[in-house]
Amino acid sequence: MISISPKTQSQHAKHKRLADILRSAIAEGKLTPGDKLPSARKLAELHDMNRHTVMNALQNLVAEGWLVVKERSGYRVNTELPILSSQQVTTKVASTPQVIAPFAKALTPVTSTKSTAYRYSFAGGLPDLHAFPYNEFKRFLQKACSKSNISHFHYSDIAGCQLLKSQVQAYLRRARGLVCDDLLICNGSQEALSLIANAFINPGDGVAIEMLGYPPARHAFTNAGAEIFALAQDAEGIKVEALARCLEQNKVKLLYLTPLHQYPTTVTLSVPRRMAIYQLCQQYGVFIIEDDYDHEFHYLCPPLQPMAASDPSGIVIYVSTFSKIMFAGARVGYLSARADVLAQLVARKQLLNHKNDAVTQLAVAYWMEEGGFERHLRRMTKAYQGRHHEMALHLNKLKTKLDIDFEVPQGGMAYWVNSKRDVSRLSEKAREKGIYVQCEPEFSLDKASSLSHIRLGFAAQEVEQQQAGLSELFALVAELEKNHE
Ligand SMILES: Cc1ncc(COP(=O)(O)O)c(C=O)c1O
Residue ranges of the HTH gntR-type domain (predicted)? Predict the structure, then answer.
């Protein structure tokens, strides 16, 4: 016989509460298989509830298999419960064998850093989240979330809501000179990269990427089993000879590039290099993934058209995102590819998650249709252009006191500054002081050289904050030991 704890005032219905108490008592071994329960009348008295409520709880427990009921002998704990002892259920015993989870491939869990939690954030691709027109966008969310859109709210339109696709296609044609016959809307470009990696890569297949690159893209390829070939770069982007050698010597299926603003160095891949790279890929049957993640933000001249805009062989898979022009939490990205490739990727998208969130897709489409999206873009491009300019001024001031070097990037959201010092511990030191920054070792596959660059995002912060943060950060840089020239 157990004594069941005192009368309880519960938020739940009383019968649910009583069922919980009895269930826990059995699971913890306070009631063991075969034990007889007090009568319903006794339980009702003990718990200050009526008999009907008690019977409700007991019958639920019978239905779940915790109790059995026999005429005239009342309720007993089911003797067929697979519970051995209370200890085994509630606590880990040293000798209890642990069942190892049979993962196909164990991944290292990623601890993602909230760069917005720092006093200063120089996160390279972070837009200014305070400047987003939330109230304006709410109107489109409200419009999207309405009965008239019921046809969008079930499984269908795997590749994306037609209204959003049409808006994005029209925008790409107008703003980037890119004509896409069709698109696949994804949960950000990361999903696009994973879909492509899994569609193309069998274990051991080669993927060529820049030596300094975007780690999440690299992870998508390695996780699919790819062998990675890192290509040397210089001030114009990847070296064509390095690519030629790599393709000649290895079986490479994909080349991943960030041609407009190379991640993380910010360099724009020159037109002659683009053409040479395209020809090599054509010759070796390699598909190019063009990750055009922040196309709009180009300040010193009009941005080059994407490589996908002149792709006679249909070997460019174009990937882009709304993470920079809206915010990463929206999870809206897209890709475009020739029809047979797109069909494969759509089939994979269905395996993964059927489709993107329909309400967000519709809201973004309405926002684009009404013109709010491009108004926001114009506003932000102007703001970022100012911050881009101010960062150059401030870095030049710092340069008069400290031996550092940098090129003013044509666009993007970050500077790539050579501190001429070993920066392997700088990110950590800066974060201890409340400054979020990323340095060359976090992006590089070359672990041999002494890495000295700092990536400084300028979009997320107002100029005053940016400058105060830079002064504090470069005080830390000045304390680092200088590299030998
Ligand atoms: C090179 C690159 N590609 C893509 C993205 C965007 O990824 P997603 O669309 O998954 O948010 C980023 C964001 O930082 C990026 O830097």
Answer: 12-80
Nearest CA to ligand 1 atom 7: 189
User: Kind of pairing, strands 287-291 and 316-321?
Assistant: parallel
> pLDDT tens digit string along 367-423?
999 999 999 999 999 999 999 999 999 999 999 999 999 999 999 999 999 999 999
Q: Is 334 in the pocket of ligand 1 (CB under 6 A)?
A: no
Spatial contact of 30 and 86, defined as CB atoms under 8 Å apart: yes
Q: How many CB atoms lie within 10 A of CB 157?
A: 19
Q: Which residues pair with 255 in a beta bridge?
A: 208, 288
* Ligand 1 centroid, distance to 127 Cα (angstroms): 12
* CB of 187 sitting under 6 A from ligand 1: no
For residue 115, how far is its CA from the centre of ligand 1 (angstroms)?
Answer: 15
- State how far the alpha carbon of 246 is from the alpha carbons of 7, 134, 250, 252, 364, in Å: 75, 47, 6, 8, 41
The answer to whether 188 and 328 have CB atoms below 8 angstroms apart is: yes
Domains for the chain: give ranges and CATH numbers: 14-77 (1.10.10.10), 133-370 (3.40.640.10), 375-479 (3.90.1150.10)
Q: Calculate the average pLDDT of the chain.
A: 92
pLDDT digits (tens, 9 = 90+) for 441-470: 999 998 777 799 999 999 999 999 999 999
Residue 296 and residue 415 in contact, taking contact as beta carbons nearer than 8 Å = no
Q: Is the CB of 443 under 6 A from ligand 1?
A: no
Our CA dihedral for 149, 152, 153, 157, rounded to 10 degrees, sits at -170
Please give the average per-residue pLDDT across 91-114, as a whole number.
78
252-257, strands of its sheet edge to edge = 184-186, 333-336, 316-321, 287-291, 252-257, 206-210, 227-231
Distance 482 CA to ligand 1 centre (A): 32
